[in-house]
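I hope you will forgive my troubling you with a question about protein structure. Could you please explain, in whatever detail you think fit, how the structure tokens follow from the sequence? Thank you for your consideration; the sequence and its tokens are set out here.
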Amino acid sequence: MKKMWCIASITQQYRERMYALLDLYQEDYDGRNPVVCVDEKSKQLIEDVRGGMPLKPGSTAKYDYEYKRNGTRNIFVAVEPLAGMRKIKVTKTRKKNDFAGFIKELVGEYPKAEKIRIVLDNLNTHFSSSFFEAFSEREAKRILRKIEFYYTPKHGSWLNMAEIEINIMSRECLDRRIGQESILTSQLNYWTRQRNIAKKRIHWSFTRKNADTKLSKHYVA
């Protein structure tokens, strides 16, 4: 588990949301009611203007400092920690329609699920109103019937396991210059496929008891 943010005080609402998530993470795997953590990351597209210098025997490859910015792309990340499965999508923006469209695709990945329990933060696009703006009322209600949102507390993004997945993705796949959306998408798809084949899981060990032991001094009424 990653390190927590520095915490000055923990309100009653913070505690309630934290407890709800920690209890959720302690449940056994339930394929009919999967827990899926969702988050987003921005990636700037940077393209080398000149290619790397030819490699000479006994020396390392060299790259020119000149580059061109090709804008940014948003990366949606959904990870089911106990199943070791994830879904990733690159979009040009991260507006309400983008979020609703991604969740619709995510719901399609679980045709046999009764309820998909989705963990996410409080970004203004992450609410049911996004679905009614993106789809017809009938379609929005159909999607929303399949999902249940669990929100992290304000300043409590450390409670979303999607952040752990994003940190791994950043180190293993994004820690380099990528200049084109097609290349970004291709590399992310390959990385995702390999992690899914290996069923890379996230093991969460921080419990409600741990929270009370370590954080109680920050609790406020």
Q: What stands out?
A: The first helix runs from residue 12 to 26.
